[in-house]
Each structure stands twice: as structure tokens, then as C-alpha cells.
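Whiteboard transcription, Tuesday session. T.W. wrote the C-alpha cells on the left side:
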């Protein structure tokens, strides 16, 4: 099923790129997960990326950024055609691989962390000391990803709000800095969860709906572009330029 979806999307994206017109305007928020570590539930093997694959992504993104005047920027609500890199779940390779590679290139990046994972003892995830070290890397910023990585829409709203509040408070206690950004675990969000995120004090939140963002976008429902292991350079370009945005109508 997924292979067919990927093949169809690739063909459609290539066809759309042949039509006249400029790349779609708006902020691009790219969604990655791990580089080297196995991602839970990655049945299609698209989120567990090798180091070589990741570096190819970055080289391609740098070329797109330069060619189309799309500067890299930290994750936040933006109104311009900029590229923001985000990484979900808080895998340990954010410190060992992602941070060093992006920092030396001057590319900012944002890691969404689930506090429960920090003390899980699972070496795939950042520990508390490692998170503190990651936060010191130039260009790194940290956001929340739910306290326990539960689907917030599966909880009653009081429990969902408590989870959101706990995720924010725990990370602030660890890093001694305000945490005002988050991504919704599994991308699951509805109007009640969005309102709870606002009440807790988050000012920008990423979901998993495909697309770019502009001045009319809801800061607590920012779209992202799903970046996959095995994407070739043409596919990476097409995603960033907006030629896969038709998927947003189906998600």
C-alpha cells in the first residue's frame, strides 16, 4: 500500500513540476525522525534514515535553499519562504549525528522531545544529560512532543491538557528555559487538543498534515513535509518546492 502511494506521489510530483509557474510560496517545515536509530512503529522503513542518506538530504536541501532563495530558519510561525528542519521523538542521534552535521553547516534545527523517553533507559533516546548537551549546540532548539507520547485525541480533554502541561513543565525543569513549541504525537490533533495546547502556553505547534504555511496559517496547526529514507534528490526537491502538496488534501 505505502509503496504504491510513494510511486504515485512521485509521478504526480514530477508531472506538476513540468507545469509553468514558480514554486509554491510559504514556510516549509520538514519532518524527520532518526538518523541511525530504529524508529518505533516504522513498518515502512521510511523514518529510520542512514547517516549517508541524511547527508544526501542535507546536501540537496542546501542546493534548493541557494537556488530558490529559501533560507534555513528556526522552527516558529513564519511568513516567508523559509525552510525549518524538525525532528520528532528525541532520538539520541540528534546529539551524535544530526546536531554536529547541521551545526557545522550553520543550519538551525528543532528537536521535539517526549520527557518520558529521557528516563526510559532506552539508548535509542536522549537521556536527560544528553538533552542538556544538545541544547547547547549552536542552532539547536527544543520543543515538546507530549509527556508520554500518547495520542492526545484518544484521551479525555482534561487528561490531554495535563499531558501537555506536564511535557512543557518537565522540559523547562531540565533545560531551565521556556518551552513554547511542540508537535502532536502521531500528528493527532483536533480543536479541543489545539485549544488545550494554547491554554498550556504553547505558541507554535506542528502537526503532520502535508503542506506549507503562510500568514494565514494557524500557529498551533502548522503543516509539515514528511521526509523519508530513500527519497532521491529529485523527490526531495519536489517535496520542498511544493509539488507534493496535493497529499495535504488526503490527510
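and on the right, the sequence the group agreed on:
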Amino acid at each position: 500500500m505505502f509503496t504504491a502511494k510513494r510511486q504515485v506521489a512521485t509521478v504526480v510530483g514530477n508531472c506538476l513540476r513540468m507545469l509553468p509557474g514558480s514554486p509554491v510560496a510559504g514556510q516549509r517545515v520538514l519532518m524527520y525522525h532518526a538518523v541511525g536509530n530504529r524508529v518505533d512503529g516504522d513498518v515502512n522503513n521510511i523514518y529510520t534514515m542512514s547517516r549517508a542518506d541524511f547527508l544526501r538530504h542535507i546536501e540537496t536541501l542546501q542546493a534548493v535553499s541557494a537556488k530558490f532563495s529559501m533560507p534555513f530558519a528556526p522552527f516558529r510561525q513564519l511568513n516567508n519562504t523559509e525552510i525549518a528542519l524538525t525532528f520528532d521523538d528525541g532520538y539520541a542521534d540528534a546529539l551524535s549525528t544530526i546536531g554536529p552535521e547541521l551545526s557545522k553547516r550553520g543550519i538551525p534545527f528543532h528537536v521535539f522531545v517526549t520527557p518520558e523517553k529521557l528516563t526510559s533507559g532506552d539508548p535509542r533516546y536522549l537521556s536527560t544529560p544528553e538533552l542538556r548537551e544538545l541544547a547547547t549546540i549552536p542552532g539547536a532548539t527544543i520543543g515538546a512532543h507530549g509527556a508520554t507520547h500518547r495520542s492526545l485525541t484518544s484521551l479525555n480533554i482534561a487528561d490531554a491538557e495535563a499531558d501537555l502541561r506536564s511535557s512543557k513543565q518537565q522540559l523547562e525543569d531540565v533545560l531551565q528555559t521556556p518551552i513554547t513549541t511542540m508537535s502532536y504525537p502521531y500528528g493527532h490533533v483536533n480543536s479541543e487538543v489545539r485549544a488545550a495546547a494554547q491554554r498550556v502556553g504553547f505558541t507554535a505547534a506542528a502537526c503532520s498534515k502535508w503542506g506549507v504555511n503562510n500568514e494565514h496559517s494557524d500557529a498551533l496547526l502548522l503543516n509539515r513535509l514528511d521526509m523519508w529514507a530513500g527519497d532521491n534528490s529529485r523527490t526531495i526537491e519536489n517535496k520542498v518546492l511544493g509539488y507534493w502538496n496535493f497529499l495535504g488534501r488526503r490527510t
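Someone added at the bottom: DSSP finds eight helices and nine strands in the chain.
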